[in-house]
Amino acid sequence: MNRKLVLSLVLAVSALAAACAPSAPPAAPAAPALNAPADIAALNAAREGFMKGYEAGDAEAIGNLYTKDAISESNNQPSLKGRDAIVASLKGMFEQVTVKTVLTAEDTKTLGNVGVDTGRYAVIVTPKAGATPYTNEGRYMVVYVKDADGQWRVWRDMDNAIGSPRPAPAADAAAGKAK
Fold first, then answer.
1. Residue 50 CB neighbour total at 10 angstroms
2. Domain count, the chain
3. What is the pTM of this model?
């Protein structure tokens, strides 16, 4: 009985000592991935998706590249707040014109769940009413976030045209009559 008591006492003291021993500090969280190749490839694919969507006149496909709370700030236009507003604006535009867009990235970076893509754009806009096509060039900046579903989507975008804004279509028509 003495032996059982000593054995029980040794086991109890060992368990108590193990419970009171300082535990190893928790591991530091992993640093967010910087420019992970898969993330950069996803942003490059999104840029291609924009160009294809514009060329196809597909407002819904372009809209799916945005977060629900996205804000789009296009040159000389009011800010569009939310995916629905962006899609509605694109649908209205595509009813009037076709657009060929070329986006040329100059710098694409990611850090964790945030990415930034900057570069230059060139567009050829062809009015469906038969007016003369026109071009526009400028710079863009797009801020992406990795959505809960793992997809990279545009959270904010802004473009900045080079040169003066193009006159309104009514001004074009009046100028044509004056010639």
1. 20
2. 1
3. 0.76
**In the chain, what are the helix, strand and coil shares in percent, each to the nearest 5?**
40, 35, 25
SS3 for 61?
helix
Q: Please say whether the beta carbons of 105 and 117 come within 8 A.
A: yes
- Domain-located, residue 5: no
Backbone angles phi, psi at 33, to 5 degrees: -65, 130
Instruction: Read off the CATH number of the domain in which 125 is found.
Output: 3.10.450.50
Cα 131 to Cα 27, 76, 108, 127: the distances in Å are 64, 21, 36, 6
pLDDT per position in the chain (179 positions), as tens? 555 544 454 445 455 455 555 666 777 777 888 999 999 999 999 999 999 999 999 999 999 999 999 999 998 899 999 999 999 999 999 999 999 999 999 999 999 999 999 999 999 999 999 899 999 999 999 999 998 899 999 999 999 999 776 665 554 544 445 44
Is there a contact between 86 and 66 (Cβ–Cβ < 8 Å)?
yes
Is 112 within the bounds of a domain? yes
**Residue in 76, 137, 126, 64 with CA at minimum distance from that of residue 104:** 137
